[in-house]
Amino acid sequence: MTLLYHYFFKTYLAESFLSSLFICFFISQQSWEWGKIALLFLGLLLSFFDLKTQTYPLLIWLIFTGLIAYVHPINSLTLVLVALAVLSYMGWIKIGEGDFLYLASSSLLLSLNELLWMIQIASLLGLAYFWISKPPKKTIAFIPFLYLGLAIVLFIDMITK
User: Fold this and answer.
1) Can you tell me where the transmembrane regions are (predicted)?
2) What values do phi and psi take at 8, rounded to 5?
3) What are phi and psi of 101, to 5 degrees?
4) How far apart are CA 84 and CA 62, in angstroms?
5) Structure-derived torsion over alpha carbons of residues 35, 36, 42, 47, reported in degrees to the nearest 10
6) DSSP category for residue 136
């Protein structure tokens, strides 16, 4: 059973990369802004790090978020999520600080409603993964689920406009 999960995650990474390229090609045909494409690539890159080592490369986050923040203004929700990431880093919140930082990057482009949908979709996917994994893991890499939640929210946004 363990071999099946390892195979699933290797194919997940390959499929995520190829689907992100397809999404970006499709998005470029739909005149999307480059910030959403950058956010998708940031999520894909951070998913690789989170799945492999459960670490969060702060420099990569700073570069991508700085580029997005150059065009999109920093709002109060972004500042609240960065503050929660700092509290998480200090150990006051038992959630990975990378999750809050990725949500802070997403809040530059998404409305509060879209961000809440992204979190709900990611939570449902994470619970489903936790439920099917045998034996249950103590911690899971959550950024891949946030990435999939973001992709779903952006896809729904794209088809409804």
Assistant:
1) 7-28, 34-51, 58-91, 115-132, 139-159
2) -60, -45
3) -65, -40
4) 16
5) 170
6) P
The first and second tokens of residue 8, run together, are: 């699933």
> Mind listing the pLDDT tens digit of every residue in the chain (161 residues)?
444 445 455 566 556 666 665 665 565 555 557 788 888 888 888 888 887 887 788 888 888 888 888 888 899 999 999 999 989 888 888 788 889 999 999 999 999 999 999 999 999 998 888 888 777 777 788 899 999 999 889 888 877 87
Question: Euclidean distance between the first and final Cα of the chain, in Å?
Answer: 42
| Cα R_g (the chain), whole angstroms | 16
Q: At residue 55, what are phi and psi to the nearest 5 degrees? A: -120, 165
Reading the block at residue 136, the tokens are 């249950």
In the block, tokens 């990611």 appear at 122
- Hey, what amino acid is at 159? I
41, 138 contact by CB (below 8 A): no
Where b means 16+ CB within 10 Å and e means fewer, 84-117 reads bbeebbeeeeeebbbbbbbbbbbbbbbeeebbeb
